[in-house]
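User: I'm writing a tutorial on reading structure tokens. Could you give me a worked example: one chain, its sequence, then its tokens, then a sentence or two explaining what the tokens reveal?
Assistant: Sure. Here is the example chain.
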Amino acid sequence: MSEITAAEQVGFPILSMLVFLPVVTMVALGFIRSDRALRRVGLAGAGAVLGLSLLLVADFDRGTADFQFAEQIPWIESMGLSYHLAVDGVSVLFIPLTALLVVVVMLSSWSSVRHQPKVYLMAVLTFETAAIGVFTAVDLILFFVFWELMLIPTYVLIKVWGNGPLRGRAALRYVLSMLLGSAALLVGFVLLGVSYRSAPGSGGGLSFDLPVLMDSPVPLGTQTAVFFLLAFAFALKAPLFPFHAWLPAALLEGPIGMAVFLAGLKMGVFGFLRFVLPLVPDAFAAWSWLVAVLGIVAVLYGALIALVQPDLRRLLAFASVSHVGLAMLGLSSLNAAGLQGSLFLILNLGLVMTGMLLAAGYVYQRVGSTDLAALGGLAQRTPALATFVLVASLAAVGLPGTSGFPGEFLILLGAFRAHGWLPAVAVTTVILAAAAVLVFFERAFHGPVRNPTVLAASDLRPREAVTAAILGVMIIAMGFFPAAVLDYSRASVDDLVDRLDSSTTVATED
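And here are its predicted structure tokens:
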């Protein structure tokens, strides 16, 4: 796999700037005492990252599958490690998505987070650095470092700024679950690095460099072991049923900002696309039936449990599990339509889940609860909020004309080609998930008023209206112009499919 360096494209190390600009902002916050100035400087830093990410997207060459904006500096040469950053069509759009979510979280928490705002902003910026590092690192161990770094701000945000009585337990459960997955992830990466020693041209040395490993054959036995290790780690992070137990508690007990990052950035599904498919294609093709079955079960389970949830945040947690299952079904198809659909779906979830969770936060601030028993008649007092929730809800159920439709359509198209009638179960279940979201919306916003505090609720404030408008416009724009998104990933997805096809052909001949 070839690369195009950052010097050739933009003339400066843009990816390193994206990774470390939040750190620079965080250091600047340490010298500021005024709460108002803290928020302004934090937002300015996050805005600068967003602007830089848009420059990255604008200069990205959509006609090649090569890694782009590459930066590589030797790290521990004796172990084959390097500081290596690059993006391709699979990862490039996650950078502006991450930057946008950080800006949205800062705006939405402008007046709601009053307890230690400096530490809160530092935690958010630390998460941004780690997340962008995850999406840009193409050295496996460097990726692992950023992957682990995310645990620190996540734990702090849930435990300190969570609004549930069991937030400490939820934070600990999340960290322990992720550490279990991280152990499997590290072992899988080490196996790949060691396996490279026997590859032609390796010289008996180690390598953890993704572009190098993508062009190096891995024995089928090693592939199978690596597949299950990495699949376990990324299924925990996604989360995919039955590894989802940490998510409902984290979304219910933690702050809305952290919930946005956990439910909006599907790093587990990204991990499958980034590492599992290109590095162990034979094993993934051999076990794609298992991925498909787990995906369909997750779609069914998540939708059915969401249907009976009385609390909006728990409903969104199980709806997220259902959507992850649908994305995994797309990956299992091993064709371009399914992979493109999965990638589009998880990008869409970054917008839709963010919108729904922000709406849950706005409702909680006004009513003091997101439980259906305490809601009803909200649209009478908050028409702008109701409109925003309706747009996000329609995208969540995949209505044509919203960002939810193209991804689901491509996934089902690819799945029917690969698995015959089996995806029909997923189609039926998607209808159940739609019912869960729409029934909750109707009862919460248009049902009878059950709580006197609803009558005193105020509509969206200016900053809240800005975030709602940005997300709403993007949801509609992606729905009507999906090609603008799909063009970025087309070449990289086609390259992945070619690798999968080649591995399937070789396995058949053997």
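What the tokens reveal: Residues 1-220 form one domain. The beta strands are 3-5, 67-76, 81-87.
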